[in-house]
Amino acid sequence: MRTPTAMIVGLVLCPCGLLLTLTGTLTPNWRQVSFIPDQPADLILEQGIWDMCRERQSSHERRCGQADELGYFEQVPVRVAQGLMPTSLVLTLLGLVVAALGVRCWRKEPRHLLAGVAGLVLLLSGLLSLVPASWYTHELWALPAPARSTLVVGYSLVLNYLGSCLEILGGLALTLSFHHCCKERRAPKLPPSAVLEAGPCSAAGAYHNPWDVLEDEQDRQRRRSTLPCDSDL
């Protein structure tokens, strides 16, 4: 049996979502702060959920591990992201392992029930990573930042959005496997036919020729015997 298309889609989208979410979680660029007063014009402050970095665009000099003077890491959206993002990554790994065991591309028949459960786990992991990203975006301009500075969404936040959406779509594709399980349970079990019970060599299933070959040959011989011979003429 060929692997269903929905399972292939799920197994392709979810690892891509995991890679994007992992990159967005680890990189310190959820928010960019630029045009900071009393600082060089080309200085950009990059803020993530684990670290803060300063970069000079002119010289590309980058320094991480900056001190949190404004209490940025103490804010609730940042704390929630620090808790939910690693949880989402662990659930995604668990869901991919269960999905691999359910799809079983090396077997003829996949385990539809196991693949559907994996889809639910991956769907939950995508939602867990989408919630902190959405909350952080909503509170982006409310989080502590230097006065009169410019705030811009960082690429890490965009990667989290993309990864979450891919995990959700892949999880939904795998949950379609539940439909196959429902079809198997609703399918009526037909009783074996009488022909199969009797066997292939039964008289009911034997071939019968309506024409009797021997009788036909006897009629031909009789017709030949009634014809007059040359001696009679």
Largest beta sheet, briefly? 5 strands, antiparallel
How far the N terminus sits from the C terminus, by CA atoms, comes to 79 Å
* Total DSSP E strands: 5
Q: Which runs of at least 5 residues are low in confidence (pLDDT < 50)?
A: 194-207, 229-233
Order of helices and strands: HEEEEHHEHHHH
Radius of gyration equals 37 Å
What is the oligomeric state here? single chain
Number of helices: 7
Q: Structural class of the helices, strands and pairings? A: alpha+beta
What do the pLDDT scores average to?
Answer: 82
User: Could you estimate the helical fraction of the residues in percent?
Assistant: 40-55%
* Spatial arrangement of strands, main beta sheet: 4-3-2-1-5
Sum up the structure in keywords:
single chain; 233 residues; alpha+beta; elongated; disordered C terminus
